[in-house]
Design brief:
There is one protein chain. Helix content is 38%, strand content 29%. It has five helices and nine strands; from the N terminus they run E-H-E-E-H-E-E-H-E-E-H-H-E-E.
Amino acid sequence: IIISGDVAFSGADKEYKLAAAFFDDLLKTTDLDKSRLFVVPGNHDVDRGAVSFGAEVIASSLVNHHKQMSQLSEQHINFEVRGDDVRLSMTQATQVALILNELVQNSLEHGLMGVAQGELHVTFESTEHDVTLWVANNGNPLPDKFGLTTHSHLGLQIVGNLARGLGGTFTLADKLGYAVAEVKFPRRGDD
């Protein structure tokens, strides 16, 4: 007997207990041994809430991509990823990857535009309740009287929406010679 496709709907233990009971009944009815049962899992047989991704891996991958692209120009940008390797659920990892991509791209296109040498840092910090990520560059300062509500282009609006989708906040300000984007959101269990 070959069973292919989705044995469960969301990869939960209780769904597999039901499936095991069904398979036992099926084998009993057909008078076959378990060695004659072949199960090929489907995409719903994954508990996506149990899958987690390291924020550092996501950030390093994105930064390396942008680093390779920036090597095509005359700029000398020092990229650095540092901080806690925060574990994120699949949903959070997707949103954080989109946020990071936009903030790194924004730093290169606006903050470091026309700068011969510069630094771009991605930093993660994790507490018991929150995750904070910063993307900072030491290039051009933000415009005078900068505000996300008045100076925000589509990319920064998307970052704000994604941060709110994570249940968090997004700020962008000049601090100690760096333009610093900060996204802070609560730690979540499985989602």
